[in-house]
Structures are given as structure tokens and as C-alpha cells.
Amino acid sequence: MKKLFLTFLLFQSLLFADSRTIYDIRGNSWLLDANMTLFLGNWRTATVTPIQHGNYKNVIVNGDTDVKSVALTFDDAPDENNTYKLLDILKEHNVKAAFFMIGGTMEDDNITVTKQTYAQGHLVLNHSYNHPRMTNLAQSDMSLQLTRTSQKIESITGQYPTLFRPPYGSINATVVDTINEHNMTTVLWSLDSLDWTLQDPEAVIQNVTSNVRNGDIILMHRNRVSVAALPKIIENLKEKGYTFVKLDGMLGVKAYRFFDTLSY
Ligand code: ZN
Questions:
Q1: How many A from CA of 257 to the centre of ligand 1?
Q2: Domains defined along the chain, listed by start
Q3: 182 an active-site residue?
Q4: Cβ contact 194:225 at 8 Å
Q5: Residues in Cβ contact with 138 at an 8 Å cutoff, skipping those fewer than 6 apart
Q6: Mind listing the pLDDT tens digit of every residue in the chain (264 residues)?
Q7: 75 given a catalytic annotation
Q8: 99: β partners
Q9: CB atoms within 10 A of CB 105
Q10: CA 235 to centroid of ligand 1, rounded, Å
Q11: How far is the CA of 196 from the centre of ligand 1 (A)?
């Protein structure tokens, strides 16, 4: 009996081995000074350690570490300029990505680019309504950030996104609980391109191509530095043998609310 139990434990540990590893967040740049590097390192450890210890439910950092694939994610779209440029580059290289969008910016011309992003096969996902630190909000306001944005996206694309990326990656137990209560999944990243330093595309290319690992979720933004860096990043990672996959496929989750017609 004991032997059987041990065999069971061994089987379980094999089953849930490396593919479920939660990475430390990577990404560095010669543009960051020592203080900023230290600050960022501390933030990453403080954010990821509770996830690695299983304290937060349903918070994603990376995909399957056994598979040589990566997922590109772009935050802070839509806008009337750089989002279009990113779409053109992705189309040219036949890569599908995830766009975590800000609900409050989806007005006028930005509705068109949001529609186009979805029509070109990319994921249009939730990045809050007006980009607050969720940890500073009352729970009712957290809920509004989630629902208003997903409803807005649904009104434009017809799909209600259930993947949410908190602005600044700022989470705590209450934020995560609230996201889960809305049947949504929190998606962070495992490789920060550091394009938000907004200076040198070469620094971004060097950072991403030297730090990449199997199953990385790569954080980028709809800014001019990522527009400049993206073609070389795609070419270099393809040369290294990485496949670009869509976030939902990588994670084996649904990106949008699924209405089961049988239940009506
Ligand atoms: Zn953002």
C-alpha cells in the first residue's frame, strides 16, 4: 500500500513537473541606473514570490517552459499612430499577438484601430479603463475598471475579454480576488522588454534576445521604441528557433467569455 502511495506521489510530481514552473521576471537594460535596477528587482521579487508560493490563485507569469515558444503582448493601445505600425509589422512577419487595451481611450478613431486589431487575428484584452494602480482603489472601483473595459471591448469587437493585465503589474490579494470574482484571469509577464525607458531600440532588442526563455510572455508597449525594435526581435527569435504563439493558445485558456448556448 505504501509503495502504491509513493508511486502515486512520483507520478504526480512527474505530471506537474517543469512545465508549471513559474519564472522570475527577467529583463535588463544599460539605460537603467543602479537605483532603478535595484528598485525593479525588488518589485519583481515581491510580486512573483507569492505567486510561486501558490498564495495567489489564477495569476499567470509565463507559459509552458518545456516548449520553445513565446507570446508577444503589447500594453496601452489603442492609439492612432503606433498601434497601426505594430499591426503592420506583425502582419508582415505573420505573427499574432495580444493587445492589452485601455477602455477609456476607445473613442473616435481609436475605435477603428481596435476593430482592426481584432480583425487581424490579435487578441484584444483588458488593461483597465483609465490605467490606475488597482491596489489604490476601493473594491467597487476595481470592479468598474474590469467590467467597463470588457464591456467596451465587447461593444467594438463582439468579444468580452476575460484576460486582464493590471497596470504597472500592481497586484495584492484583494486585487487578485476581485479579478477572480469576475471570472477573469490576471496575466503578468516573464520578460520585460523595458521599452518604457523610451530611449534606445537597440537596448530593447539586446535585452529581449539575450534574456528569452521557453514559454516567455514578453511585455512591450505601443510606443515608438517597440515599433523600431519589433522587426529585429521577431527575426532574431525566429532564427533562434522560437515560435510565436498567441497568449490564449500558449496558456490553454479562453481569452473571451464563452456563452454556452445549451444553458439558455
Ligand atoms: Zn499599461
A1: 22
A2: 2-251 (3.20.20.370)
A3: no
A4: no
A5: none
A6: 556 655 555 555 554 445 589 999 999 998 899 999 999 999 999 999 999 999 999 999 999 999 999 999 999 999 999 999 999 999 999 999 999 999 999 999 999 999 999 999 999 999 999 999 999 999 999 999 999 999 999 999 999 999 999 999 999 999 999 999 999 999 999 999 999 987 899 999 999 999 999 999 999 999 999 999 999 999 999 999 999 999 999 999 999 998 755 544
A7: yes
A8: 74, 124
A9: 20
A10: 25
A11: 10
CA of 92 to the centre of ligand 1 (A): 25
| Amino acid (1-letter code) at residue 102 | I
pTM: 0.91
Tell me if 19 sits within 8 A of 184, measured CB to CB. Answer: no
> Pick the catalytic residue: 76, 79, 216, 221?
221
Q: In Å, how far from its chain's centre is CA 105?
A: 19
CA of 2 to the centre of ligand 1 (A): 52
- Distance between CA atoms of residues 97 and 90, nearest Å: 8
Give the distance from CA 193 to its chain's centroid: 12
- Before 161, cis peptide (omega within 30)? no
Residue in 75, 76, 195, 216 annotated catalytic: 75
Q: E strand or H helix at 185, and its extent?
A: strand 185-187
DSSP-based three-state secondary structure for 41: helix
Instruction: Give the whole-angstrom CA distance, residue 212 versus residue 183.
Output: 30
Distance 74 CA to ligand 1 centre (A): 9
